[in-house]
Structures are given as structure tokens and as C-alpha cells.
Design brief:
alpha/beta; binds magnesium ion; about 400 residues; binds adenosine-5'-triphosphate; six-stranded mixed β-sheet; 13 helices; Rossmann fold; VC0802-like
């Protein structure tokens, strides 16, 4: 292979560091394969043809069009399972050549700046007679003398990374932090109750980050709830979909259920009754879709339906667990994640909320299961659920 000398101003190669998969024993290979598949799908869609090689702690991304590397790195860093990403320069594993390249790269990245650095070398080729500390002294020493940067081994401003393998060496001067977590899809599938608010898209993202593929379910009540509100939910789903190469949203007609509850039940119970219907339907749709859990944006004591008492009451109607990734978060923490993942701007657009439809000012905060069950005894629960499920529209995002 031909190595470019001197080092070009840009590169078409990046190293992607893989996190926690190390802990996963015999599942490791499956997780890595899934991660590579996810990376290929999302990077190709955003930045064109690419090849991803490697196995274990390091993957190498090779991009056909080097002008797109920045975009590809941003996508890779946002891919669950990746802990950090660096654009790297590849050269022959020849120590003199590496030393020259270190000086050249440090000069172009940091020359003339008053900063400290540390050289960190990793030997991928353990048969190399020179040990890492000696290589650090050699490469770091050359940069110290010729680029005139301060060395600080404990708290450097910048890291000069070097790895020396049998076939190639790589060097880099930038590292972008990745989201960490586990590859989407490797821990199973969950049914996300997706509304137009701030919380549920963040909850979906957190589930994805923990390796869950998500399918969405949205309860829609036309004409009380506008089409614009539904479009907003779809727009939020589209923000989550690329991380898993597409996502299905189940749009459930909810109007008849809400009307039946309003006509027959004590107003103070309406929200809880709505929510028990939502959970029952989501649970059945989850079973049909092969999802092993529900997932919501619920948050302890955020609203009346989210007290411990009321969460217990809705949990009684499902056959599987409900993930509530945001249960203990403060709103400010949720908003910060929402901004970071790019859903906030859409979430704060005005929308109507079916959970507040026909709801009195003071809904119960400490519901009682026997009272809820008695209220439901006055409703054709099964018929309402079946009609809603029959009317589901499945939208591909
Ligand atoms: P968000 O919680 O997403 O900001 P919100 O505050 O309007 O929206 P809540 O009333 O707090 O929603 O509802 C709690 C959770 O219930 C939501 O996070 C979401 O998972 C689910 N949910 C509420 N309304 C709907 C709906 N119309 N369709 C699907 N899920 C819903
Ligand atoms: Mg909420």
C-alpha cells in the first residue's frame, strides 16, 4: 500500500472506539456486527459510500468522499455503541516516518499556539521491541522541540494519539466524544408512546442508546386534536428514525374512547382512564410487533397522572414492563438532552394534547385501583380497544 507523504490536509479515515461491548461475553460478536450494520446504514445515508473494518475495541471507517468526513464523524459519534471518534492519518509502521508525521501534524493543528500536549502511544503490534513509554518520549520529544509546545502529562490541553500496528500506524490530533451506550437493536425492541411533547422523544433516544430498537405509537383524537399535532409527532419520530435506519409509527384513533369515557365516567378519573386505555392498546400492539417492553416519557410527579400511586394504577393493565428512562430527571436535564439530540425545537411548537381533552382542573393524584376498575365496568372496554386497534394506521418514518 502507498502511504501519502507528507500528510495531506484532510483524511478519509477515522477510528471509531467501541465502549461497553467488551462486557458482553459471547454476545460480543453479535453486538459488533450490529454496530457495524448500524454505522454503515446511517453513514451511507448521510455521507455516501463507506467501508467499516475492524473488530473489537476499534473500528476503522473509510469514506469514499473525503470532503464528507466531518459529517460522517458527527453521525458516527451519535451512534449508540461508539464512545469516541478521531479522524486519523495512516502511514507505514516505521518509527522515523511516524516521528516526522507527528511533528507535521502537530505543527499544522497546533503550531504557534500556547498550549500543552501529551503524546499517547498504543502498541497494537506487541512484538515491537520498543515499549510505549519510550515511544511517547520519542514522538512527544520531537514535537516539544520542533513545534515548541509545552508537555503536560497529567492535564494536557491536547492529545497526540499514535497507534503502531503490524501493517500500519495511525496518528491523530482530535477526538470527538461519542454517545456511548449499546448498538441500537442489540437489546431488543420497545414500543415507545410518542407524543408531541419534550419528554417522550428524549425517552426514545435513551432507550435507543441502551440498545433498544423503537417502534412508535401515537394516540390521535381528531377532530379535537389537529392534523398539525399529528404531523409534529411524525416529525419527532423522524428525528429518532435515522439512528435505527427507519421506524414505524402506529397512529391509533383515540376519539371514540375519549368520548366514551367523558360520557360515562367521573371527570376526575378521565386522565387515568385514558392512560389505562393507552397502555392496554400499546401492550397489545407491542406483542404483535415483537416488542418486549413499553417506553414512555413519564416523569415522577410532573403531572397528576405521574404520581407513584397513579403510575401503579396504569401499570396494572400491561403484560410487560414499561421503561421510563426519565422517571427521576429534572425538566432542565430533559431539556438539555432534547436540545442536544435536536428534538427540542420541534417539541416546543404549539400542539394540542389529547391527555388534557375533557379533563377537569383537578384530576385525582392518588387514584385507587378498585375505583378505576369500577369505572371501567361501565364501559365496553374490549370493544373500544378492538375498534381502536382495527383503525391503526402504520406510518413508515
Ligand atoms: P411529553 O411527556 O412527551 O413532553 P406530555 O408532557 O404532553 O408530552 P404527558 O402528559 O407528560 O405528555 O404524558 C406522559 C407520557 O405519556 C408521554 O411522555 C408519552 O410517552 C405518553 N403519551 C402522552 N400522550 C400521548 C399520546 N397522545 N400518544 C402517545 N403517547 C402519549
Ligand atoms: Mg411529560
Amino acid at each position: 500500500m502507498q502511504y501519502p507523504t507528507p500528510i495531506p490536509a484532510d483524511t478519509d479515515l477515522a477510528v471509531l472506539r467501541v465502549g461497553e461491548l467488551w462486557l458482553k461475553g459471547r454476545n460480543q460478536q453479535r453486538f459488533i456486527d450490529r454496530l457495524k450494520h448500524n454505522l454503515r446504514t446511517t453513514i451511507r445515508a448521510a455521507a455516501g459510500p463507506c467501508v467499516i473494518r475492524g473488530n473489537r475495541g476499534h473500528l476503522y471507517l473509510h469514506l469514499e468522499d473525503r470532503s464528507q468526513l466531518k459529517k460522517a464523524i458527527a453521525v458516527a459519534a451519535d451512534t449508540p455503541g461508539i464512545t469516541s471518534v478521531s479522524p486519523v492519518y495512516r502511514l507505514a509502521p516505521d518509527l522515523d516516518a511516524i516521528e516526522e508525521a507527528c511533528v507535521e501534524l502537530a505543527q499544522s493543528a497546533w503550531g504557534g499556539r500556547d498550549i500543552s500536549f501529551a503524546a499517547k502511544t498504543k502498541r497494537l503490534d506487541k512484538s515491537l521491541p520498543v515499549k510505549a513509554p519510550e515511544l511517547n518520549r520519542r514522538f512527544g520529544g520531537a514535537v516539544f522541540q520542533r513545534v515548541k509546545l509545552r508537555v503536560d502529562l497529567t492535564n494536557p490541553d491536547e492529545i497526540l494519539g499514535i497507534e503502531v500496528g503490524k501493517e500500519h500506524a495511525h496518528i491523530w490530533v482530535q477526538t470527538y466524544t461519542g454517545v456511548g451506550g449499546l448498538p441500537v437493536g442489540c437489546t431488543g425492541k420497545v414500543m415507545l408512546l410518542l407524543s408531541g411533547g419534550i419528554d417522550s422523544p428524549v425517552a426514545g433516544y435513551m432507550a435507543q442508546k441502551r440498545g433498544c430498537e423503537i417502534e412508535g405509537i401515537y394516540f390521535h383524537s381528531p377532530p379535537f386534536i389537529s392534523e398539525a399535532s399529528r404531523e409534529k409527532v411524525e416529525a419527532l419520530g423522524r428525528k429518532l428514525a435515522p439512528r435505527q435506519g427507519g421506524m414505524t409509527l402506529n397512529v391509533v384513533p383515540f376519539t371514540e374512547i375519549q368520548k366514551a369515557i367523558k360520557a360515562n365516567c367521573d371527570g376526575r378519573l378521565t386522565v387515568l382512564l385514558y392512560r389505562r386505555f393507552m397502555y392496554r392498546i400499546a401492550d397489545r400492539v407491542a406483542v404483535a410487533a415483537g416488542a418486549n417492553a413499553l417506553c414512555t416519557g413519564e416523569n415522577l410527579a410532573q403531572v397528576a397522572s405521574q404520581t407513584l400511586e397513579n403510575l401503579n394504577i396504569v401499570d396494572r393493565v400491561t403484560s410487560r414492563i414499561t421503561l421510563r428512562p426519565l422517571i427521576t430527571y429534572d425538566k432542565a436535564e430533559i431539556v438539555a438532552i432534547s436540545r442536544r439530540i435536536g428534538t427540542f425545537e420541534t417539541s416546543i411548537l404549539p400542539h394540542d394534547d389529547c391527555c388534557t381533552l375533557f379533563v377537569p382542573k383537578h384530576p385525582v393524584t392518588k387514584g385507587r385501583l378498585d375505583i378505576l376498575e369500577a369505572a371501567e365496568a361501565d364501559l365496553p372496554v374490549e370493544d373500544l380497544i378492538n375498534a381502536a386497534i382495527d383503525g391503526i394506521e402504520r406510518v413508515s418514518l
